[in-house]
Design brief:
Elements: H1 13-19, H2 22-48, H3 55-62, H4 66-74, E1 83-89, H5 94-105, E2 112-118, H6 124-136, E3 140-144, H7 150-161, E4 166-169, H8 180-199, H9 210-224, H10 231-237, H11 239-258, H12 269-297, H13 299-305, H14 308-321, H15 327-358
Parallel strand pairs: 1-2, 1-4, 2-3
Helix pairs in contact: 5-6, 8-15, 10-11, 12-13, 13-15
Length: about 350
Amino acid sequence: MSKEKKADGKIQWGRMIRKLNPYTIQKGFRYLKHYGPKEFWIRLHERFEPEEVPYGPWYKAYVPDLKELDRQRREKFDYEPLISVAVPAFRTPEEFLQQMIDSLLAQTYRNWELCIANGSPGDEVMSSVLKEYTARDRRIRVIDLTENKGIAGNTNAALQMAEGEFVGLLDHDDLLAPDALYELAAVLLVALGAFSCATQFKLGALHIAPLALIWGLLSAVAFAFYTITPQKLIQEYSLLPIVGWGMILGGIVLALLCRPWTVAVTVNAHLFIMLAGVIFLGTICSFCFYQAGVSIVGGLAGSILSAAEPVTSVMISTLLLHVLFTSFDLAGFVMILTAIPLIAVGEHWSEKQVVSLRK
């Protein structure tokens, strides 16, 4: 049972007035004409409710320019999965339909298909537009339904057309940013690389011990807090004391769980030298260097680049300890390492754009 949408929030009228232009006014009238006053009012609330993080300035800071988009078009992935975009269409205004399809054609990632389920078999304008685009590009596929089956039925029909390894949903009057599928493909490389190493693509079993997987996930969550820190705390105390106290408290908790005092060790000068090396080089220096890198390439790129750390450990294990790995492990390492520069370059460009806007 679907829940009825309601417009409970308050509209920011000032922001709405600033957005007015001939195009938005025309689009508003068309939406009102096709979907009626109730749906129009709901959509108006959705678009102009107060934002916790203003999207406009963020988008201007991170939208790629023509040079960056051209670089993405020339980029070649080691693994380029077919991404299907499923669109349930019903009584879509001609201009909206054209703009939606054009946003797919403008994608910098080229291995995609657009699957449109047309729930308006009697709409000659829609049929004409769809025939024009399917003749222009073979990646655009259309099925004409005998009747409108509703949003759920039309969506299922579009999904049944999909032949890609991954499927995404898109509304018939929405647009995709030109780098949307490129960014998705880069993240998929990292995810599939990790999945390959962990399962060797066998869904029924893990290639690694369950305890190792649990600790790996906990480490990933903990690592996120290197770059996700409350802004108010940073402003009041600075980053290093916050992380230092976090490590002390975390160390106390882990000590209670692992009980290191039960391990027999020989206390001598060599032990203290090794401990000092771990604390100074392995913790303090590495953290400071990491934070300096994050300030240059940004938080997301820093997190992605950190994916190279376990891969580096694996390479050292192979060279020094002669640990053997399967072809699936090696394929996973290649996927992760390939995605790192792809994402890092784009994120570094975005951070430079933010700095230029702030000047």
